[in-house]
Amino acid sequence: MSDGTQIRIDLDASTPVNRQIVDQIRTLLVEGVLPPGADLPSVRRLATDLGVHFATVADAYRTLAEEGWLEISHGRSARVLPRRAPAADREADELFRRRLRQLVAEARSQGVSAKKIASELDSLAKGMTP
Amino acid sequence: MNRAWPAIFPIALLPLIFHWMPLWRRNGIWFGVTVAPGYTDGPEARSVLHRFRIAIWLLALAAVTVTALGAPADFPWAFPAAMTLELAGALTAFAHARRQTLPHAVSPSPVRSASLTVAPEGLPGGFAAVLVPFAILGATALYLYLNWSRIAERFPVHWGIDGSPDRWSGRTWQGVYTPLLLGAAHCGLMLLIGLGILRFSPRGRVAANAAASAQFRRVILQFLVAAVWGMALLLAAVSLAPVLGERPLGNWPPILIALGLLALAIPFVWRLIRIGRTTGGGGDGTPDQCWKLGIFYFNPADAAIFVEKRFGIGYTINFANRVTWLFGGLILLFSLVPVLLRYL
After folding, report:
1. Nearest to B130 by CA among B141, B122, B140
2. A10–B111 C-beta distance less than 8 A
3. C-alpha B41, offset from chain centre
């Protein structure tokens, strides 16, 4: 069952589970692995597969729906919507810079070279078309 | 022949199953506890298993003695007492073995995985697999209706373990059609459980075991559908007995039923054991602390209603889920069908 649409959560991680779900599904959406029109599992199905409460998955789906990625309706699977990337405002730019700074610092502290970080960032940014 | 002798078969079969049951497990789980890889081959684990097996066979010896040496008049209570002794004793021995294993427990992997694919899922065999058992029961009901005059005024509806009839009925619609209605209710219940497993059990939480979990789930559902067919055929045969004569097969029916059950169960059980052996480490995606006495799963934070058993083969229910109790209510309702039929 190892396909490209697999998500993984870590119950012991400091990041809340609903946030982990949002981050991973968003990545798959941005990368185009989940194209517009694709159905996602129902809240119950995904919660059952991950072994978490419905509310956790429902919250994650709601967040993605608020971001304009998903259409959710009661009793049905969530569906991926076509979404145009909004123009990034100053607040979004600032948030991105802060999070990236923390991530780069963590990578550098673990010995990842600056060149490697730059090339990874470049390839990721070009590979994702929201 | 002492009526007790045929009863020795189920009494001896039960400890044989319990003898092997601790080995019918996922890798990395020992007596319902998540343990480190390699622990199960160590002397401590083997010693726990050895003591569990000694307890099981001592109980079996006691149960056989109670049944075989009891007077024939005592048989109606001696047989259930022996079976209860074996079951309750086995559960106690399991609880003891689990307590001895708990100090060696390790934390199961906190990492869970799930696929975002929405694959259509259905019971094995599709619509026909669901329809055929009811068609068998329906056709039997029609045959009985068309041959009403051939049905004996009084006929047996239940047989003891030695093949002797022990319950009788008359040529009334309740007497003739009750086994078929019971069959339909039981088939419906088993299919409902199958649909429940399909919709409310995880497809695979631990990435390393996802393929094995999916295969396990598929084989369990195949077993369930096969059991529904077997149940429909058995109750259709029981319903036809009044037309075919009082004892068309002599004392053979219980033996034939037992052999039929074994023939049905053994290939599936064997496949399920083999699947369990292919699982990797990382646990089964359920926390150890949510397994009460190692048998009852109680996890309010888990949306699943059915999860794989840690002791034995198959699925058990998540007692912390409200829908589980709704399911339990439905099962109770189905089990009340014979009582309701008696008052109609």
Report:
1. B122
2. yes
3. 29
Please tell me the predicted confidence (pLDDT) of residue A1: 44
Chain A residue closest to B199 (CA)? A45
CB A103 within 8 A of CB A15: no
The domain locations on chain B are: 1-106, 115-344
Both tokens of B202, joined, read 């995880």
Q: Give percent of chain A with pLDDT exceeding 90.
A: 63
Cα separation, A63 vs A58, in Å, equals 9
Cα separation, B103 vs B252, whole angstroms: 50
Instruction: Look at residue A76 and tell me whether its pLDDT is greater than 90.
Output: no
Residues of B in contact with A48 (CB under 8 A): 200-202, 303-305
Contact criterion met (CB < 8 Å) for B303 and A6: no
**Residues B230, B264: Cα–Cα separation, whole Å:** 8
User: How close A17 gets to chain B, by Cα (Å)?
Assistant: 11
C-alpha span between B235 and B224 (Å, rounded): 16
List, in order of start, the domains of chain A with CATH numbers: 17-80 (1.10.10.10), 90-127 (no CATH)
Q: With the C-alpha atoms ordered A45, A49, A55, A56, is the resulting torsion angle positive or negative?
A: negative
Q: Tell how far CA B271 is from the center of its chain.
A: 16
Question: Residue B318 and residue B322: Cα distance in Å, rounded?
Answer: 9
Structure tokens given for A86: 């909004």
Handedness of CA B25, B31, B36, B38 (dihedral sign): negative
Q: pLDDT tens for residues A21-72? A: 999 999 999 888 999 999 999 999 999 999 999 999 999 999 999 999 999 8
Label residue B251 by pLDDT band (50, 70, 90).
low
Contacts of A52 in chain B (CB under 8 A): 112, 301-303
Phi/psi for B292 (5° steps) reads -80, 125
**Average pLDDT along chain B:** 85
Confirm if B212 and B279 have CB atoms less than 8 A apart: yes
